[in-house]
Design a protein that fits this description.
Aldehyde Dehydrogenase, Chain A, domain 1, Aldehyde Dehydrogenase, Chain A, domain 2
Length: about 500
């Protein structure tokens, strides 16, 4: 197969199990649609328990050889996979735009972002160190070594169909684990294209297996992994209710879990902030992927002294954003993923307006473009009683809350069961230290709206989950520590 592929070459509608493309055991299929038009892109295998079990069987057979492969050999495969991602970044970016809706520039950017994790963990594969424990008794040697945890089940969302699964598979393979995976039903084609490139890069049969499933069959497919003792780890990105379900259902076999769950991120603008920088940072963090990210600011707290000025500055920038299909080269915001997403956004805005919010920009569906478009929106005079205060909108809506002092801002920011990301803007170095320590979140942006990096640990606290992705810490979630005690040495 040639390294550089066209879009049509990347669209694979079948499951990938044991190095082969196979239909679902039931023969069923479901349609994957373009959210910009509603047109069906492909009819994809609709998998169930039998397909999930076949994937696990393949992963179990492949595990011993992959576990025992030299770290440098696993790294070489991952480096080849990374190179193929870069060679095919344009086609992959178009595929992401086609099935997820984000503008092509963002889709291509997602490919580069996801590829950065593959490169990072390819390098980390050769740096899995253990420890020699200082001698406690004569004649005994104590060491700690790290070993792959075993078969990993990766379950990923639709908002970043390339990056989310790449940053789960890469550390798993680097550690010596084998993988079974299921992408979201809205966006399976990108994930299937990813395993196509992995196969070409030399990932052995059975080491990486991927199945697609509709919303109706996903529960039975995943249940097979939850109850199978051979699957030793679940890694999931998605909603908190689903994360809790996975934790409960996998408890019987005490699997290791990494859960990157929902967020309700605060964004605080103090009156000593650089307002131009704060507006730009908010645009970057909020409107990426049309607001459909787990680290998007959901509640924007602005200090009273700059509240009106900040709102005016923000509204002008937001009103100028170009909403269009992802195929439009000038598009800055594409369609939302589906009708359910649009209905939730509209419900939140309507509820806020009914309770006294002022619309500074947007506030309406853009039906002339299609059924899944909503105007980027800024709402002033938001209050804690509004739905958008306690529910993640997951769309291009910025509610502005007013506050008077630092203590009030911290109380409001932390008044949520979630704790994934937080942001704040201030030029007071003492305040920066206080607020950084006071925010209850796994990730804090300080005068910065773009947080993610393959070199940094990504994850939350409270009901936003546990475990970390990326960085040197991200590999530990795929490893077990074995203590070796050797006696009789004297």
């Amino acid at each position: 197969m040639a390294s550089k592929l066209e879009l049509k070459d990347l669209i694979r509608p079948d499951n990938f199990i044991d190095g082969k493309w196979v239909a679902a055991a039931s023969g069923k299929r479901f349609g994957v649609t373009n959210p910009a038009t509603g047109e069906v892109i492909a009819d994809v295998a609709d998998s169930g328990e039998a397909d999930a079990r076949a994937a696990t069987d393949a992963a179990a057979r492949a595990f011993p050889a992959w576990r025992d492969a030299l770290p440098k050999d696993r790294a070489a495969v991952l480096h080849r996979w990374h190179d193929l991602m870069l060679e095919n970044a344009d086609a992959l970016g178009r595929l992401i735009s086609l099935e997820q809706g984000k503008p092509f520039a963002e889709g291509r950017g997602e490919v580069l972002y996801g590829a950065s994790y593959v490169k990072w963990f390819a390098d980390e594969a050769t740096r899995i160190y253990g420890d020699i424990i200082p001698q406690q008794q004569r004649g005994k040697r104590m060491t700690a070594v790290k070993e792959p945890v075993g078969i990993v089940a990766a379950i990923t969302p639709w908002n970043f169909p390339f990056a989310m699964i790449a940053r789960k598979i890469a550390p798993a393979l680097a550690a010596g684990c084998t993988v079974v995976g299921k992408p979201a039903e809205d966006t399976p084609l990108t994930a299937l294209a990813l395993v196509l490139l992995a196969h070409e890069a030399g990932v052995p049969p059975g080491v990486l297996n991927l199945i697609a499933a509709s919303r109706e069959n996903a529960v039975s497919a995943v249940a097979s992994w939850l109850h199978d003792s051979r699957v030793r780890k679940i890694t999931f990105t998605g909603s908190t209710p689903v994360g809790k379900y996975l934790a409960r259902e996998s408890a019987e076999t005490l699997k290791k879990l990494s859960l990157e769950l929902g967020g309700n991120a605060p964004f605080i603008v103090f009156d000593d902030a650089d307002l131009d920088a704060a507006v730009t940072g908010l645009l970057v963090s909020k409107f990426r992927n049309g607001g459909q990210t787990c680290v998007c600011p959901n509640r924007v707290y602005v200090q009273s002294g700059v509240y009106e000025k900040f709102g005016d500055m923000l509204a002008k920038r937001v009103a100028a954003l170009k909403v269009a299909p992802g195929t439009d080269p000038d598009a800055q915001i594409g369609p939302m993923i589906n009708a359910r997403a649009i209905d939730k956004i509209a419900r939140h805005v309507d509820d806020a307006v009914a309770q006294g919010a002022r619309v500074l920009a947007g506030g309406k569906r853009l039906t002339a473009l299609g059924p899944n478009y909503y105007a980027p929106t800024v709402l002033a005079d938001a209050t804690p009683a509004m739905q958008l205060s306690c529910e993640e909108t997951f769309g291009p809506v910025v509610p502005l809350f007013r506050f008077d002092d630092e203590a009030e801002a911290l109380r409001a920011a932390n008044d949520t069961p979630f704790g994934l990301a937080s942001y704040f803007y201030s030029q007071d170095i003492r305040r920066i230290d206080r607020v950084s320590r006071g925010l209850e979140a796994g990730i804090v942006g300080i005068n910065e709206g773009a947080l993610a990096s393959e070199a940094a640990p990504f994850g939350g606290v409270k009901e936003s989950g546990y475990g970390r992705e990326g960085s040197k810490y991200g590999l530990d979630d795929y490893l077990s520590i074995k203590y070796l005690c050797q006696g009789g040495l004297e």
